[in-house]
Structure formats: structure tokens, C-alpha cells
Amino acid sequence: xxxxxxxxxxxxxxxxxxxxxxxxxxxxxxxxxxxxxxxxxxxxxxxxxxxxxxxxxxxxxxxxxxxxxxxxxxxxxxxxxxxxxxxxxxxxxxxxxxxxxxxxxxxxxxxxxxxxxxxxxxxxxxxxxxxxxxxxxxxxxxxxxxxxxxxxxxxxxxxxxxxxxxxxxxxxxxxxxxxxxxxxxxxxxxxxxxxxxxxxxxxxxxxxxxxxxxxxxxxxxxxxxxxxxxxxxxxxxxxxxxxxxxxxxxxxxxxxxxxxxxxxxxxxxxxxxxxxxxxxxxxxxxxxxxxxxxxxxxxxxxxxxxxxxxxxxxxxxxxxxxxxxxxxxxxxxxxxxxxxxxxxxxxxxxxx
Length: 352
Prior knowledge:
alpha+beta
């Protein structure tokens, strides 16, 4: 069954979905554009786009009809297919809701979670093609890390290390970066989403690097923490605790396991070591067309792992004024357990 057909299957009688989020449109049609509306009824699906994209869309899209958007066309289509209720994504703005209510008299416009839940359920399960693209992105990121690691030295700034990773990923085939690369050294490591700055690396610093590449729209995500010269005993202890916590999370990943139980597996080890308050985020998240997707491996998650889900495992400890450690792998859930797509070593590494 096609992706669009799965949405159609969920639509009540006389209800249609209007999908305008660029990532959701891309997921359902395979077409990339900054503008467009995908109208899905129980019996039809039409991608409406403007003159900038119409020729390319008509040539590329095979999963639905394609039309150039015209004034009144959406109203005509709703009338043609007997639409009385229109589902919107939760990201729809108040202004967009107002526009649609003005343009579609007699149609009840309902933005919110119903359509988002259906789309999230679809996007959470990756096809073999999606897994292949994410794996390719991961390989680019790993190759960049291997290339840059030997060049890291005392006196380099965080920004210089980040730029080196960025260039290596782009030169290695990434169409773009998954997100702004994080390089946090020394005391800056206590900030989970630190912005690389002019801090010059010092002997004994831990350096946390969080980065990813994009291939055909699909993201990778990985984090490694290394030491520049022998670190303090406390820093080494923290690294060992995080590595044990991450391994516990990985060992818990299997179909049918609650996402909150994977989080608990990592969190309990960090708590037992006395660092519970210093683990300030969830253990992981889904990855795909967006770098942060459902499901979430967190204490509050209600999701259950299923084959085809792509998730990170990334516990961390962050001590203000001291250092921080995060280790992150990217895995895909299988019928038997999981496959770790991150081939990069994570044993404690000291750079000299």
C-alpha cells in the first residue's frame, strides 16, 4: 500500500487532508518544493503547486495527480469530492486557517493532532530505501570524523574543528549538514547544545563533537567525545559511566519495548553513579527527513519500538564548570533487535 493510500485509509467519510508541511509533502510525493498543497481525499490525491514548480512536478510525481494552483481550484476540488471536513497539520498558522475558512465556506477546518499522528506513524517506520539513504549519510559523517580527528591539536578553536568537520562532510558528498555542528571543549562541554566559539583547545580537555550529513534529504546524527591529552580522573570516570549507560540503552532496544524503558536503562546507570541531575535530556530520538522525529526515547514517551524505526542512543553527563560527555549512535530497529548503523569506534580515545 502506498503512503498516500495509508492516509486515505484513515480519512472518515467526507473528510480530506490538506498537507502543506514541505517535509510531509516530500515524504508522500517524493517531490521537493518550497510551496505546495497536497489534497488527499478518500478517492483522490492532488498536488497543487505554482508556476515555479509545475513542470518539474508533473515530470517527477507519479503517486498522485499534479495541477497548477489557480484561484478557486481548492474549493472546486472540495466540492467535487464532497468534502465537508478538512484536516490540517498542527503546524498550520492561524492566518492559514483563516484563509482556508474564508476560501472554503461550508467546509469545517480542523487543524491539530489527528493528521499529525497519522503522518508521524507513517514516517516513524523507515523503508529499506530510507534506511539506505540514512546509512549513506552516516558513512559520510564517519569518514569526515576519521579525516579530521588526527588534525585536532592544542590551540585550535572549537570553531576551527567544527568548520573542518563541515568541510569534510560537504566535500565527502553530503548535500548539506544535518544541523549546525556542535564542538564543545573543556568547560563548554557542560552545554548539550553548545555553539562552537573561539575557545582554544587545551591539553587535558574533553571535546564533544555532535554532527551529521544529509543524503537525498535524509539525515544522520552522531556524537563522539575524545580527550586531547590525558584528562582528569573525574572526566575519565564520567566517560566510562556514559559509555556504560549508552550500551545499556542499546541492549534494551528491541521491537515491542517501550521507548521510556530504553531511556530508563541508560538513566538508571547514570543515577546510580551519582550523576542523575547532570543527564538533562532524553536518551534518543527518531531520525529521517528531519534530524529530530518521532519516536522519542524519553521518560514521558508513550511510544513502543517497532521494526523499521530509526533512533539515536545518546545519553550524556554535563557538569557545569567542569566538562561534559555525550556518546551517540544511530540504530534501526529490526525484527530480532537492532542494527547499529554507526561503525565509528567509541572506546575512550586520547589524542596527542
